[in-house]
Amino acid sequence: MTRLPYLDPDEAEPKVADLLGRIQPLGIFRIVAQAQRAFPHWLRMGGALLDPAEFDPVLRELAILRVATLTPGADYEWVQHVAIHRAVGGSAGQMRALRDGDVEAEALGQDGRLVVGFTTQVVRDARPDDETYAAMQARFTSREIVQLLLVIGQYMMIGRVMATVQIDLDPALNVLEPRRED
Q1: How far apart are alpha carbons 31 and 2 in whole angstroms?
Q2: Average pLDDT by consecutive 10-residue portion of the chain (182 residues)?
């Protein structure tokens, strides 16, 4: 049971109530909506961070899932993003590798291993080592690296909100996009 109440749309400011009425009825939205002035901006930023034109969606989801595995109490993040990972073309093998902590698994692919290693170092150490950073610079543009850093930071923040308030698990979203088979 969550430590904080979910915001009732009937008790929300009009703009927040309208937004809650137009998005998926997920607990994370109703918890973050408690910060009513920040909520609309947080939603807009979250949407921008998921823009597939800014960073490869499969690699993005690998980073988000890695943040979830490194964040105690972020089970909600894992449940929701496994489905999204599969919907954007990620494989069951990639998900298994992350779940099992096998960050060097062939299933992740070369870019996936690099992104997962980078994410691990950013979460654990606040910055990657010189070798990992150089590999990221050799493979990705500055724009992509900053986008990934923002994604990592966003999901670190969300994971900590989830863990602190002990958010109840919602079933995974029914994401209706094609899935890639192994």
Answers
A1: 9
A2: 93 97 92 97 96 97 97 90 94 95 96 98 97 98 98 96 90 55 40
Nearest CA-CA partner of 123 in 174, 58, 72, 81: 72
The token duo for 149 is: 């850093």
- Positive or negative: CA dihedral 140, 121, 103, 75: negative
pLDDT at 178: 40
Q: Is 116 helix (H, G, I), strand (E, B) or coil?
A: helix
What is this structure's pTM? 0.91
Q: How far apart are CA 108 and CA 90, in angstroms?
A: 9
How far is CA 144 from each of CA 49, 113, 154, rounded to the nearest angstrom? 11, 16, 15
Directed axis angle between helix 130-139 and helix 142-165, to 10°? 120
Q: What is the DSSP secondary structure assignment for residue 54, as one 8-state letter?
A: T
DSSP label at residue 153? H
Q: How far apart are CA 160 and CA 77, in angstroms?
A: 10
* Backbone torsions φ then ψ of 176, nearest 5 degrees: -100, 55
| 171 φψ region: left (φ > 0), alpha (ψ -120 to 50), beta (else) | beta
